[in-house]
Amino acid sequence: MLHLLNLLAAISLLVWGTHIVRTGVLSVFGEDLRRVLAKSFSNRIHAALAGVGVTTIVQSSTATCLIVASFVGKGLVTTGAALAVMLGADVGSSVMAVVFSFDLSWLSPLLIFVGVVMFVTRQDSPAGRIGRVLIGLGLITLALQLIVGATRPLTDSPAVRALLVALPNEVMLDIVVGAVLTVLSYSSLAIVLLTATLAASGLLPTNVALGLVLGANIGSGVLAMIATGRASPQVRRLPVGNFLFKVAGALIAIPLLPQALALLQQYVETVHQQVVFFHLGFNVALALLFIGFTGIVARAADRLLPTPVVGTGTERPRHLDPSALATPSLAISCAAREALHQADVVETMLRGILPVIRHNDLALAEQLRRMDDTVDELYSAIKFYLTQISREALSERESRRWTDIVSFTINMEQIGDIIERVIQDVEDKKIRKNRSFSDAGMAEIVHLHERLMANLRMGMSVFLDGHVRDAQKLLEEKARFRDLEHEYAASHIARLRDNTAQSIETSSLHLDLISDLKRINSHICSIAYPILESAGALSKTRIRHSQLAALPPDQP
After folding, report:
1. What letter would DSSP give residue 42?
2. Least confident interval from 56-70, 153-167, 313-327
3. DSSP per position, 408-464
4. Alpha carbons 122 and 129: distance in angstroms, whole number
5. Is the sign of the CA dihedral 269, 272, 273, 275 positive or negative?
6. Rounded to whole angstroms, how far apart are CA atoms 48 and 46?
7. How sure is the predictor about 173, in pLDDT bands with cuts at 50, 70 and 90?
């Protein structure tokens, strides 16, 4: 019983080590990994090579699949190019299995020692995050040694040997077992390494180990489909297409297993390396065989998972993919997309103010006020989603983006509240009392509204791109809008002095309306502050010191 417990603990340590490496690498290189993949879709060969490189670093083809699937969901890349990346990603994962098959016992204590020193001394810096990765690599090599030690007593047990002899030599059963173990452990790399270790110790026949490896490859495809199960159809196309490749490859490999085993035994010395080289050969053959069929499978996946027709109910959260939470950089991207979705709803509300004022449209007013509930719902969903992202796994840049998204969604939520109150005031003070603005007053409102719509679109662009020059332009609009408000308020007072009947009837509403529009503009311009602050373009105070010095001293 103790030996079995030791084996389970060693397996758990192996899975945990791969998890630490994956999350650590993503926290250090998250944005760069996304940038490399985004630039590597010019052709299928480059895309496959990018998949090899990124997955060699991340050590998880599932993580690579989640990142690339997000690009497919955004429409930034076709499903065919993404499938080429995944063929390379599976090769990259198998390369790491080969690396860990060598005797790295000397490396484990070195990696853990150096990693702990870097992590403890510089925890919040990039060096500390690299230390976390080194700790994970050390735990993987240590876990492999522990597995070898834990399986040796089990190998010598007569009961275990009798059980293995009694198992049916059925490759389909081996594939199913390998797939289930991969899903349960969330790591095909860990299962392949475990299978190779057990086979090397004599606990598993080599032919059974090869069947388990095929199952591990299929299981990694199942993992990606499970991880994106609640995502949009566009996102799910890549895992489905990749799974089809794996299943087709396994079906082709099954009748060739005896020949493959004979070749491995002839050219590869140890059983451990025979298993991991079979894993590598399978994925290389898969990439070479199916790289030319990515377009066909992509079209099949597109037909199987068509893009839904946009209709009613599309104002609910669309982009907050729960499966992306395991990849913080990807989750940040999902939250940013949902924040822009929230801004789109706010823009629709803001655009609708003018038709309500001009045409006294009560039905539209009611519809716009209900949309504020959607804005509030999206704000709550984004805020809750962001709280589930591990801040420790974020780089400094991603942490700033996390803060920017929170600030942006708060501003959008407050703008929605102001618009709702504006529409309610228009209903109560104008529509129901059958009053009208003067021609001059209406022209002022139209002008302010046009400036406000332009500023909102600029604010969304600043949030999306983070350009400092655009942020400066947006902040300059705050002062211009304030001047316009003062000018139009003075013009309204002048019309009151001239006893303009329409201005007198709507005076309270008119002044409140231009004041509320200025408040909306202030929230829009607030989007620029985080970008300007990060660039060091903000002063600590807006007081002009030259004029302050010229003021007379306070009198006692």
Report:
1. S
2. 153-167
3. HHHHHHHHHHHHHHHHHHHIIIIITTT----HHHHHHHHHHHHHHHHHHHHHHHHHH
4. 8
5. positive
6. 5
7. confident
* Residue 106 burial class via C-beta count within 10 angstroms: exposed 0-12, middle 13-18, buried 19 and up: exposed
Question: 370 pLDDT exceeds 70?
Answer: yes
Q: Are 139 and 24 in contact (CB under 8 A)?
A: no
The beta-strand segments (E) located in 44-86 are none
Phi/psi-derived region of residue 393, left when phi > 0, alpha when psi is between -120 and 50, beta in every other case = alpha
Instruction: Find out whether 230 and 205 touch, Cβ atoms under 8 Å.
Output: no
- Say if CB 526 and CB 411 are below 8 A apart: yes
Buried b or exposed e, range 438-469, using 16+ CB within 10 angstroms? beebbebbeebbebbeebbebbbebbeebeee
Q: What pLDDT band is residue 528 in, cutting at 50, 70 and 90?
A: confident
Helices 468-497, 507-525: crossing angle, 10 deg rounding: 170
CA distance 196 to 202: 10
CA separation for the pair 80, 290 (Å, rounded): 11
pLDDT category at 33 given cuts 50, 70, 90 is low
CA separation for the pair 209, 202 (Å, rounded): 11
User: Which is it for the CA torsion 270, 271, 273, 277, positive or negative?
Assistant: positive
Contact, 212 vs 204, CB < 8 A? yes
What are the tokens at 124? Answer: 């919040």
Tokens read off for 339: 């924040």
Q: Which two tokens stand for residue 546?
A: 């030259």
CA distance 29 to 16: 20
- Residue 536, sorted as left (phi over 0), alpha (psi -120 to 50) or beta, turns out to be left
What are the pLDDT digits (tens) for 101-113? Answer: 776 677 788 888 9
pLDDT tens sequence across 323-362? 677 677 778 888 888 999 999 999 999 999 989 988 888 8
Asked if pLDDT for residue 166 goes beyond 60, the answer is no
Q: How many residues does the chain have?
A: 556
Q: Which amino acid is at 248?
A: A
Over residues 205-215, the pLDDT tens digits come to: 888 889 889 99
User: Which amino acid does the sequence have at 307?
Assistant: T
Global pTM reads 0.57
* Token pair in block for residue 110: 């070195």
Given a cut of 90, whether residue 414 has pLDDT beyond it is: yes
Cβ burial of 313 (10 Å; 0-12, 13-18, 19+) is exposed
pLDDT at 397 (0 to 100):
79
Sequence-separated (6 or more) residues with CB below 8 Å from residue 492:
441, 444, 503, 507, 510, 511, 514
Tokens of 328: 């913080």
Joined tokens for residue 42: 């010019």
| Whole-number Å distance between alpha carbons of 94 and 202 | 22
Closest C-alpha to 97, from 276, 248, 267, 319: 276
In the block, residue with structure tokens 């230390």 = 131
Q: Which of 245, 193, 221, 259 is nearest to 17 (CA)?
A: 193
How many whole angstroms separate alpha carbon 75 and alpha carbon 450? 31
